[in-house]
Amino acid sequence: MVCDSFSGLPEPNEDDKIHILPGGKTSSYSRGMFSCPLDTVKNNIQKYGDISVCEFVQGWFQDTLPSIKGPFIMGFIDVDLKESLKTCIEYLYKEFSEGSRIYCHEAPHLENAKIFFDNHWFNVQFKEEAPGFYGAGTGLPLLHVSNTIGSALGYAEKRGRGKL
Ligand SMILES: C[S@@+](CC[C@H](N)C(=O)[O-])C[C@H]1O[C@@H](n2cnc3c(N)ncnc32)[C@H](O)[C@@H]1O
After folding, report:
1. Which of 18, 72, 139, 146 is most buried as measured by Cβ atoms within 10 A of its Cβ?
2. Is 2 in the pocket of ligand 1 (CB under 6 A)?
3. Does ligand 1 come within 6 angstroms of the Cβ of 4?
4. What confidence tens digit (pLDDT) does each residue in 106-164 have?
5. Is the CB of 16 under 6 A from ligand 1?
6. How remote is the CA of residue 36 from the centroid of ligand 1, in Å?
7. How far apart (Å, rounded) are the C-alpha atoms in residues 18 and 14?
């Protein structure tokens, strides 16, 4: 299932406009960034992937995700904004089976990674403990760039333990 606005980011909240990464690097965001029309995405998947396994869901997450049903065993969330990430978790987390991995492409962004450690928020949303996030702050050790090993990729594992 491929979910996106296909018209780029929504307007970021004030505290989502700039993310500060470990080491002092920053990422800034604005409405419409990363916009790519659905037809272009489909053409690329036709060229390099297998479109027969894809189902496309176009629209803002708060409108499209509430009706999406699992069960899922793996997810890849690359949505940049922490508000968008929270919307994805809010609607989709319960659709993942125990033991699922939910990969996220903003591992070095502590604003995003810390959502996966927020016990209070997970308790309110799902009556369970936060899963934590492997690779928070550094990313999984997949790439070697200028004397550091890391990547943008990390993951949360839905443990199904610690039901509150
Ligand atoms: C960095 S791009 C990644 C796109 C794609 N996953 C990839 O790997 O090429 C971030 C994507 O998140 C989408 N996005 C972020 N927040 C969204 C929201 N609230 N609703 C729908 N799409 C959103 C944007 O449209 C954009 O395509």
Report:
1. 139
2. no
3. yes
4. 999 999 999 999 999 999 999 999 999 999 998 999 988 777 788 999 999 998 654 54
5. no
6. 9
7. 8
Residue 141, preceding peptide bond in cis (omega within 30° of 0) = no
Distance CA 158, CA 94 (A): 10
Average pLDDT of every residue of the chain: 94
* DSSP 3-state of 20: strand
> What's the pTM value of the predicted model, to 2 decimals?
0.94
Q: What is the pLDDT of residues 74-116, one digit of tens each?
A: 999 999 999 999 999 999 999 999 999 999 999 999 999 999 9
Instruction: Give residue 8 CA to ligand 1 midpoint distance, Å.
Output: 6
Ligand 1 contacts CB of residue 10 (under 6 A): yes
**What span, in angstroms and rounded, lies between the C-alpha atoms of 6 and 34?**
9
Tell me the CA–centroid distance for residue 147 and ligand 1, in Å. Answer: 30
Expressed in angstroms and rounded, the spacing between residue 79 Cα and the centre of ligand 1 is 4
Q: What pLDDT is recorded for position 69?
A: 96
- The radius of gyration of the chain's CA atoms, rounded to the nearest angstrom, is 16
Q: Yes or no: is domain 2-157 CATH 3.40.50.150?
A: yes
